[in-house]
Design goal:
α1 packs across α2. The strands form 5 sheets. This protein has a 6-stranded mixed sheet. It is an alpha+beta fold. It contains 6 helices and 17 strands.
Length: about 350
């Protein structure tokens, strides 16, 4: 049974730590790999990324597998959340073995952040090591194949897409080969996710069935957003993050190709994308449970195609699952508030 989430890749777990109220509107999301780790890679295309340990994922470098990926709010400050995840992994003796004692490990925990500073009202609050630890503990405590909470949770708590509320979304697909490809996205884009002429989500144009909002609904939404923009002009410092996972047996170079192609999924759902003030970053994880069919030509292609598709769907789900925010740090109406569920 699948749940249309990143956790459909066997052994992969997701945990959120969410902080709201008293000036907070932020959080951290951890993707925990199976015991023994997963092959990992990354592709960074935004011009203003905030990342940690991404160089270790270069196929030319020595680290082959990682045990966790951290997605966090708090801009560069929030990268401190990875320290809490490292501490937890060390306690579990998970990481790169560097000595004769099994406890002598160095966990490699790649991380990336989104900008959400001040969106809860207090610029000085942001995720820290304790937040990261809470998120990884939540992941470890979850059941295999568990549903993943979407919307304003974890790293998506303070996320925004243009003038609207963003959040966390996830999606998966099982290919004819039996290989699973899945994605988890933090939609926090400087660009727009909606067609300005109709109000339809760009990402839904790629899903085959589109119900366009009524003209009067779209006109009302445009007026509302224009009024909010006139009252407040938040800095366009945003980022869309994604983790794409598969149970295919991939090399680091192949995983990096998956991460790069998965960016196409963001570009379908967000316009413009990969700007200088974005930090758009996609990680790829491969657990290696299913070998590629080497008898078929270019067996990686179907995984590349699926990776972009599930990222697009995850962006749509993030936006549709998000709830409106009206607080001391600003007002971000949700897509559902503006346009309804249809």
């Amino acid at each position: 049974m699948t749940v249309d989430a990143l956790t459909d890749v066997a052994g992969v777990r997701v945990g959120h730590a969410t902080r709201t109220g008293d000036g907070w509107l932020t959080g951290t999301t951890v993707v925990l790999a199976p015991d023994g780790g997963a092959v990992a890679a990354v592709d960074v295309r935004g011009g203003g990324p905030g990342t940690k340990e991404t160089d270790a994922l270069d196929p030319r470098n020595v680290v082959q597998k990682v045990d966790a990926i951290v997605l966090t709010g708090g801009s560069a400050y929030g990268l401190d959340a990875a320290s809490g995840v490292m501490a937890w992994l060390e306690e579990q003796r998970r990481g790169v073995r560097v000595g004769p004692d099994p406890a002598h490990v160095v966990p490699v925990v790649p991380a990336a952040c989104v900008f959400d500073l001040g969106r809860g009202g207090d610029f000085r609050v942001r995720p820290d090591a304790a937040t990261g630890r809470a998120a990884v503990e939540a992941a470890a405590a979850s059941e295999p194949g568990a549903r993943v909470r979407e919307g304003c949770v974890g790293a998506g708590t303070g996320a925004a897409v243009g003038p609207m509320k963003g959040g966390v979304g996830t999606a998966s697909i099982v290919l004819e080969s039996g290989i699973t490809v899945a994605a988890l996205v933090v939609a926090n884009a400087a660009g727009s996710v909606t067609d300005p002429e109709t109000g339809v989500l760009y990402g839904e144009l790629f899903q085959g069935r589109v119900t366009y909002p009524e003209a009067r609904v779209h006109d009302a939404a445009r007026l509302r957003l224009a009024d909010l923009a006139a009252k407040s002009a938040p800095p366009p410092l945003n980022t869309t993050l994604a983790v794409v996972a598969t149970d295919a047996d991939l090399s680091k170079a192949q995983a990096q190709k998956v991460a790069g192609t998965a960016h196409d999924g963001i570009a379908r759902a967000v316009r413009p994308v990969h700007l200088l003030h974005d930090g758009d970053t996609v990680f790829a994880l491969a657990t290696g449970a299913r070998p590629l069919d080497t008898e078929r030509p270019l067996p990686l292609n179907e995984i590349l195609e699926a990776a972009a598709d599930v990222v697009t769907r995850a962006v749509v789900r993030a936006v549709r699952a998000a709830g409106s925010v009206d607080g001391p740090g600003g007002v971000w109406p949700s897509y559902e508030e503006l346009y309804g569920s249809r």
